[in-house]
From TrEMBL:
The keyword Transmembrane appears for this protein: yes
Keywords for the protein's UniProt record, in alphabetical order: Membrane, Transmembrane, Transmembrane helix
UniProt KW Transmembrane helix keyword: yes
Name the record gives this protein: Integral membrane protein
Parts of the chain that traverse the membrane: 40-60, 72-90, 102-123
Superkingdom assignment: Bacteria
Lineage, highest ranks first: Bacteria, Bacillati, Actinomycetota, Actinomycetes, Sporichthyales
Length: 138
């Protein structure tokens, strides 16, 4: 098995895990405290937490099926960050409180904006290495 890219994978999965915990905690507190104040933003934060958990789990798996699923999760996540980021700038009334993806993840150091492309880059590298590195294993 190839060890190329395992450091990058560790960082990427670590960031997904941290964001999952941060978004999950934030959504839990917001929804428990005052769910009616900003239901759209709070709901998006909860969705983001689920996406980050899925990303972390799928990226760690070595099967081709998991890698394909991870790719689609990352693509959907990136689209979500771009759409929510843009809407949070255009439709400010929809976001009386910010979500994880508001203003492209500004509240999280823009990590939500850069993490999906980084994960897709890693998945692309691994898919090119896969046939010779894994020996066809599942």
């Amino acid at each position: 098995m190839s060890t190329r890219g395992t450091g990058a994978l560790t960082i990427i999965v670590g960031l997904y895990t941290v964001l999952a915990l941060a978004a999950g905690g934030r959504a839990s507190v917001q929804l428990a405290d005052d769910p009616g104040h900003a239901p759209f933003a709070y709901g998006l934060t909860a969705v983001a937490a689920v996406v980050y958990v899925a990303g972390a789990v799928l990226l760690r798996r070595s099967s081709e099926r998991a890698r394909v699923a991870a790719k689609w999760v990352c693509i959907g996540e990136f689209a979500g960050v771009l759409v929510v980021g843009t809407l949070s700038l255009i439709e400010r009334d929809w976001f009386p409180e910010s979500s994880v993806w508001s203003i492209y993840g500004a509240g999280y150091g823009f990590v939500p904006l850069f993490l999906p492309p980084a994960a897709l880059w890693w998945l692309g590298r691994v898919s090119h290495e896969r046939p010779s590195a894994a020996g066809g294993g599942k």
